[in-house]
Design goal:
Radius of gyration: 21 Å
Structural class: mainly alpha
Strand content: under 5%
Shape: globular
Number of strands: 0
Helix content: 55-70%
């Protein structure tokens, strides 16, 4: 078929085997090395050793090329060569693909819990997003939307406990209790609930990073907050939201202060973009929004934001012992699941490789790490 020639620079970038032109590093190599001073590397020596063994099973760019060229059945056969394959054996429908990938993720987190030292906050750092996701689904269900999208058995808090906590918030730990109390009886729209849940999640994850005392986790958390705030700003601008709405969704804790973004919001679009370009991280992302068409869709914005976060995770693996290589490995597994879901769903819906490639995230692997 000849799709995705691996010696073509364009496809190397798409596969995460090289940096897109003009994308400056999120953090320098000296800064990455300096991160070690904020953690307790020796505590994680055993866990890192275990990770170095299993990371050989990560999906490689070469195998992704084969998957892109294959049909659905052949793709499942190719995946038998790597760890995730056994979880997808016999899958025929989108629901079966999702169920297999969720089982796979659960086992990744279970393994992480087995190898981490006592007192580590890293597993909570990864799992809290599922608790916030499930709570968000349940809060929306109270508005009559149904409970579609629940992910039972993957977070720290059982879904039934979350469900009871809606009526009795005191049953829930902080900050989930405070989230329910803020949302209860306020008549929020689904969009408002989404923003409130995301705010609590991003702030809680930053708190966990600080409790771990690791500069990489803190950097990743603050960058996530900055990107979320920039996206909220741009979306609100597109639909002419009242500034009071934006004030309710912006998250504290990033390097760009919400007050700065609120001051820019009334400015004309071109002026706002020009001033944002002088702030951290926003320049490359906002470049995507210069044309009218790009303003109407934020897909490329999301993808570039994910790329920046993935680049930070991949660079962290250069640190030999500590939280960093474990964090990078789990992020790679999560990204692998995202890539495979996009790819397999595309094949089930008879999308062309070119169409699938447009939405694929960069794939972090050993090969990627060596080229950054």
């Amino acid at each position: 078929m000849g799709f995705f020639p691996v010696n073509d620079k364009k496809w190397k970038v798409a596969l995460g085997m090289g940096k897109p032109p003009g994308l400056r590093p999120v953090v320098s190599r000296p800064a990455i090395r300096a991160m070690r001073g904020f953690s307790e590397p020796l505590r994680y020596g055993h866990a890192v050793g275990r990770i170095r063994v299993v990371e050989a099973g990560l999906l490689s760019p070469h195998r992704l090329v084969r998957l892109m060229e294959a049909d659905f059945e052949e793709a499942l056969r190719i995946l038998e060569e790597v760890d995730v394959g056994s979880y997808l054996a016999g899958a025929r429908t989108a629901a079966e693909v999702d169920a297999g990938l969720l089982r796979y993720l659960k086992d990744v987190y279970r393994y992480l819990g087995e190898i981490l030292p006592r007192g580590s906050y890293l597993l909570d750092y990864f799992l809290c997003k599922y608790d916030f996701h499930n709570l968000k689904v349940l809060l929306k269900a109270e508005m009559g939307g149904g409970e579609k999208g629940l992910l039972p058995g993957v977070g720290r808090i059982e879904v039934e406990v979350l469900r009871r906590g809606l009526a009795q918030p005191s049953l829930l730990p902080s900050p989930y209790r405070e989230l329910v109390e803020e949302a209860a009886g306020k008549g929020f729209s689904p969009e408002d609930l989404e923003a409130i849940c995301d705010r609590y999640f991003l702030q809680h994850r930053l708190q966990l990073a600080r409790m771990e005392g690791n500069a990489l986790l803190i950097k990743f958390s603050t960058l996530s907050i900055d990107l979320a705030n920039l996206k909220a700003l741009v979306r609100a601008k597109f639909v002419n939201k009242d500034p009071s709405f934006l004030q309710g969704v912006l998250v504290e804790g990033g390097e760009i202060k919400p007050a700065e973004l609120l001051r820019l919001y009334p400015e004309p679009w071109e002026t706002m973009v020009k001033r944002l370009e002088s702030m951290p991280y926003s320049r490359e992302l906002l470049r995507l929004l210069e044309s009218y068409e790009d303003r109407k869709r934020l897909t490329d914005f999301d993808r570039r934001a994910d790329d920046l976060l993935m680049e930070l995770a991949a660079r962290a693996r250069r640190i030999s012992v500590g939280v960093e290589p474990i964090f990078a490995y789990v992020r790679a597994r999560e990204n692998e699941v995202t890539v495979l879901r996009v790819l397999l769903m595309g094949k089930l819906h008879n999308l062309s490789p070119e169409e699938i490639e447009k939405v694929l995230r960069r794939l972090y692997t050993e090969e990627l790490e060596g080229r950054l």
